[in-house]
Design brief:
By secondary structure, this protein is α+β, with helices and mostly antiparallel strands. It has 5 helices and 3 strands, in the order αααααβββ. Helix 2 runs parallel beside helix 4 and helix 3 packs antiparallel against helix 4. The radius of gyration is 24 Å and the shape is elongated.
Amino acid sequence: MFVFFLIFVALPLAEIYALIKVGSWLGVFPTIALLLLVSAVGAVMVKREGLRVLRRMQEQVVAGNMPSNEILDGVCLLLAGLLLVVPGFVTDVVGLLLLLPPFRLLLRSGLRRRNGKKIRVVATYSGRIVDNGRVHDVHGTFDNRGHVTPPKEIEP
């Protein structure tokens, strides 16, 4: 409930306040030009960072690793792009912060500390193994909390 209050009440009030302050300091047309300039520069930066994250993600997949950091970076860049499109200085500042790799690193480490023990990964697998011309169907599960069911052969 508090998050919705922040998004739908506090954020618009902060944006209006910032627009009035900057508009009274710079004037109307320079303020509008500054908003458009920040949005354009932000779009270019989101594209550049997005391609960099995509390249790192592909490298992780080729190496056989889960690209979890890159996925979170991609979500941050998506949010940054959204915030930079929304007119306003407060959202632009947050969007520009999300574009900075050191800020995303701090955000990732904070999320891991906060949610690391809450995340549970359970995977099931099944497939066929050919051993000396004999085909075996196998299945099993993996749980990151230590509950592992080893593969068992399924009789045909």
